């Protein structure tokens, strides 16, 4: 009798604790139910999993991220915002007249400023990216700002530190933000030469536990480099190679010069001032030099993160899909979308458009790959042309619409990137760049295999159950 009573007490206390724990912070209904089931069905261990994956950032940290623009950066932002409003009155003469709804969506969701006359170069190969990046770092005269998810302690990472030390000694100001989860292979000695030389290095939103921080969510997945306020890099490549099974040699990176570099600089300033305990930075003209018209590209740079009321990057993706009249081509390492994005692609395919999705056959995250397979099955069933890249871990993250519009950056097309990670993406209004990305897509197709609905139907029930089970964890992956 006493044992039954004890079990009832344990169940009731566990259920009450689960409800209090999950409802302490607002989250969407899918994640709420997922965590309730985990906590109630897996006593004790469920709370360990929640400690690792489910806790949100403190309100103070989120508020700091949302309000850093008040630290002087707003002086530049306000001027550019006014210029954008004036240019929207130009009608057909506006450089973004073909996509005003998308432009306004991104302006309202994230304050993403429209910039014109940028020179933007697409880089698809890791070797080429490293060569270009190091050449620009070598040429720096005033400052180098780097925000990275993964910096590996391999030959590339060591070469980066050595070069940054050299630039500090030459009088260049160097600031580095890195994510402790993505850069978990770094030890305490890695940054010591740079700090000793006078460089500034900060882990992103560090806790009192330092590198031993157990919170796995809320990773800073942004990959930004700004050099002298004139050259900027953003995209998907990390610095150095992963120690995991499949190396990432193919991704999409942007090298930018022109007005858009100021948007990257402002993003870095906001993130630096949120995470740095001392030596915060403020608006100075030297960090935002006068930009020359160097190219023809119009673009918006959009940030995403858990501090936002609206999922700005996802809203941009949905609006981008809605612009399509003929085709939508997508590449992503993982595809674990919410219903709105999934339905958007299926709706486009059902209306007769050429909708293609390419994902890698090989990845370093088996559970995410299993969850991706569930959604690939849905897409293949409803007319989307699905391809699996066979020649390694394809890491590109792009959406190309009608050979006119291009989205690329750090976010995967998954729930984590839209809700949990700190991400950055570029929405580009340039036919030449969209066509260049299409040509690369076609080259990748030569090393990809079509994934048809006939293949889906041939799968065993056990295989399909595995994908369905992995999909249940999608809201908290």
Automatic annotation (TrEMBL):
Highest taxon listed in the record's lineage: Bacteria
Subcellular location: Cell membrane
Residue span(s) of domain PLD phosphodiesterase: 216-243, 390-417
UniProt topology in membrane: Multi-pass membrane protein
InterPro entries given in the database record: Cardiolipin_synthase, CLS_N, PLD-like_dom, PLipase_D/transphosphatidylase
Pfam families in alphabetical order: PLDc_2 (PF13091), PLDc_N (PF13396)
Alphabetized Gene3D superfamilies for the sequence: Endonuclease Chain A
EC nos: 2.7.8.-
Keyword entries, A-Z: Cell membrane, Lipid biosynthesis, Lipid metabolism, Membrane, Phospholipid biosynthesis, Phospholipid metabolism, Repeat, Transferase, Transmembrane, Transmembrane helix
Transmembrane parts of this sequence: 34-53
Name by which UniProt lists this protein: Cardiolipin synthase
Source organism of the structure: Lacticaseibacillus suilingensis
The encoding gene: cls
